Amino acid sequence: MADIEIKVPSLGESETEATLVAWLKNEGDMVAVDDVLAEIESDKITMEITALDNGVLKSVFKQADDTVEPEEVIGLIDDSVQPEITTASEPELTAEAKVESKVKPKAEPKAESVVEAPAKEPGIVAEASIISAPVISSARSEERMPMSRLRQRIAERLKYAQNTAAMLTTFNEVDLQAVIDLRSRFGKAFQDRHGVKLGFMSFFVRAVCQAVCRYPALNAYIEGDDIVYHNYVDVGIAVSSDKGLVVPVLRDAHVMGLADIEKGIAALADKARNSGLLPDDLKGGTFSVTNGGIFGSMLSTPILNPPQSGILGMHNIQKRPVVVNDTIVVRPMMYLALSYDHRLIDGADAVRFLVAVKEVLEYPASLTLDL
Asked: Using CB atoms within 10 A as the burial measure, which of 50, 71, 77, 137 is most buried?
């Protein structure tokens, strides 16, 4: 039989190379279909290369930290050798072995270097992160580590956004009592019917979609001397993971209901957690939403995701005293931040856009009125 080539998958239109992070199998190891063989990292994403057939990893042509290109052959699988399937019954246990088999094995201790994050709203992922930096101690030392390709690309794009766009941020606050009441009253019925939880993010995405219909410049971008407008809304959802920041895109969010948005966000979150994001999941995007609130942020100025002209920053929900109908009441409040490209968007429209988002969230029944 012919050897099976192990090829680097497509990295997307603008990606021409990646770095081989590591081989997860060694030469001579038996492999099965869908076994993860290697991990590569491009400017935008970390991807796994899996086996297409059963066999033995015959040879590898690239090593860790080597640069690889799409469709490049980096190894071979010999499929003439198939894994042995053991069908023989287990040998009879001795009396002592039977006694030992009844003793509950000790649980493996958790690695101290892994910090587990609490579960949060779907769509914004706080994955367990591996602490690789030196631990602070009384002994003075320092360690120099090369930046990953992904971190380098993040740095380049953020600096590009800062140097190119005339960024400005406007703020407002929103009373989320109505959204919380809706979730409390209909959350269980929603999950029973649609198979997904009713989170906060779907309300924010719908609010953004409704607002950009009224203020389309927030859903456009500058290209040379032209303004490119979109008649659709593809919302980028900023995701933080141990690999860095990625922004997978929820396509055609403007035609989705709350259930479809929640399902779409959950699917992207699952891909991000399991290193399953593909280049196409990160392409495009006409507007972005980021939620620093899951980390405890009270207020921030989010940076644009070029070439987009707007990004909405969500923050943590805190109960605060506010005045409602001349009475001081305690309400769950959130600060909202809208960063925008002042070259394209006037301050007045930016403020009106954020007020439109606020109105939808404070009166969510308007979502059914197509206002």
From this structure: 77
